[in-house]
Amino acid sequence: MSIMDKIRLRQELGVWPSAATPPEHRPEILYIGCVDARLDPIDDIGIDKGKALIFRNIGALVRRNESATSADSVPPSASIGAVLEFFLNHIPAAPAQVKHIIISGHTDCGGLQACQHNACGEHDHYLPLYLDSLKSVRAKVMAEAKIKGWNDADILHALEKESVRQSVANLLTYPVVQRALDDGLLEIHGWVIDTATQRIAEMNPATLEFEPMAERAQDKNPDVRAGYG
Ligand SMILES: [Zn+2]
């Protein structure tokens, strides 16, 4: 039976979706993750349905805020910019309630491996353009790898972390994000999930280093801008 036949059969038999009460739409988290098919933010992290907006792309990348190059063109940052405005300007929150943006990279990421090895194919038009936003991340990691004699796995792990650092920095280029941080209504979190174990390493906002979440002390000052200052 094909994967599509299984989906249709479940609908016919009424065994999916389950008859549970639909959840309320009350997101407190904007989760930006990779499209990787092995990961499921709701199940892996244990967020209840209705509590998180899920935005996924290759590599969990956030582009810098860019202006349109002409009046009738749409800048490449429009998609993420619109999600940020939807989450921060239009999702209701209780007074003084803090919202959270999580940028969640992961280990063994195909997008980052393509970036690492310049592995786009001759029929790929958009992939190289998309991954070009990691150009400076790659250059920084490769320069460090040369000095430290890293192997392929070391380089990939460094790319995973540096890519999240860049995406967090890029988030800060959106006025709507700066406004929410200034108002004390937003915390930003950088993660790398181990794809095999689903254990999370979390970026320390003061040092920008990644530490196992289970061992990390809670921050007294969670404003991630401290580490980029
Ligand atoms: Zn990935």
Provide the descriptors you would attach to this structure in a database record.
9 helices; single chain; alpha/beta; 229 residues; Beta-carbonic Anhydrase, Chain A; globular; 15% strand
- Report strand %: 15-25%
What's the CATH architecture name? 3-Layer(aba) Sandwich
CATH H-level name... which superfamily?
A: Carbonic anhydrase
- Give the helix proportion (percent range): 25-40%
**Count of DSSP strands:** 6
User: Which structural category do the helix and sheet elements fall into?
Assistant: alpha/beta
CATH topology: Beta-carbonic Anhydrase, Chain A
Number of domain units: 1
Strand order of the largest sheet: 2-1-3-4-5-6
Q: Which ligands appear in the coordinates?
A: zinc ion
- Net shape: globular
Oligomer: single chain
- Which segments are poorly predicted (pLDDT under 50) over 5 or more consecutive residues? none
Q: What is the first-to-last residue Cα distance?
A: 56 Å
Q: What is the average per-residue confidence, as pLDDT, rounded to a whole number?
A: 91
Order of helices and strands: HEHEHEHHHHHEEEH
Mind explaining what this structure looks like?
The chain is 38% helix and 15% strand. With 229 residues, the protein is an alpha/beta fold. It has a single domain, classed as Carbonic anhydrase (Beta-carbonic Anhydrase, Chain A). It has a six-stranded mixed beta sheet with strand order 2-1-3-4-5-6. β4 (186-193) and β5 form a beta hairpin. The longest helix is centred in the last third of the chain and has 20 residues, at 152-171. The protein is globular. The N and C termini lie far apart (56 Å).
